[in-house]
Amino acid sequence: xxxxxxxxxxxxxxxxxxxxxxxxxxxxxxxxxxxxxxxxxxxxxxxxxxxxxxxxxxxxxxxxxxxxxxxxxxxxxxxxxxxxxxxxxxxxxxxxxxxxxxxxxxxxxxxxxxxxxxxxxxxxxxxxxxxxxxxxxxxxxxxxxxxxxxxxxxxxxxxxxxxxxxxxxxxxxxxxxxxxxxxxxxxxxxxxxxxxxxxxxxxxxxxxxxxxxxxxxxxxxxxxxxxxxxxxxxxxxxxxxxxxxxxxxxxxxxxxxxxxxxxxxxxxxxx
Length: 271
What we know:
Helix 5 crosses helix 6 (127-144). 75% of the residues lie in helices and 0% in strands. The longest helix has 29 residues, at 42-70. The chain has helices at residues 7-31, 42-70, 76-83, 87-93, 97-120, 127-144, 146-154, 159-183, 191-212, 217-237, 242-247, 263-270. The protein is mainly alpha-helical. It is globular. 28% of the residues are buried. The model is unreliable at 24-37 (pLDDT under 50).
């Protein structure tokens, strides 16, 4: 296909789309911050909205620094003291700690994860390598920021942040899958289901890994790549057709035969 975009071009387009979603989430959060000044005339309201967005970003960056310094269990009083403002100021721009956690998650994606993804995407790699690269970027970003990850994405008050983070990555993956399936004249009806299933599985696996780090980072990336790439290859093998898969599901391969001993090995064993 002469005009077929490279895997990297498709991934960059998806990252750009995800960045737009990230900005949309922050603007939606901003609109929930109640303030009497919302009744001002349009010109003044627009200036106030820009001020609120800039101030929220500044306070969110301060929160990120507080979490890195104090730890994932930092409270609103400690965050305010670390930034150098009163807790009243925090509540002027964030409705509660959950709102602040979501804003932190969005900021993490905007300033850390998405730039790393953009930098890591190369025109010189195939789709398998690109898949492993994207997974590696995510896992390493999380591994590098354990306190921030716990505060922004897994704390009890941050269910919305977790859902939003998964939504961003799932939309990125959905865009790539739809593009590639369309190029193959394949059925892309299941793209959103596959994307959310893969992202959810990766998210849960990383959550568990962060609690004990029982295996090295490289091993985790390999296992997650093994799961994801096997799913992608399997779906492509049926051209995305649910009907074809249900009619003739693939058989589980037989276990490999144990290696046979050579004559020399047998002689050595008999000594």
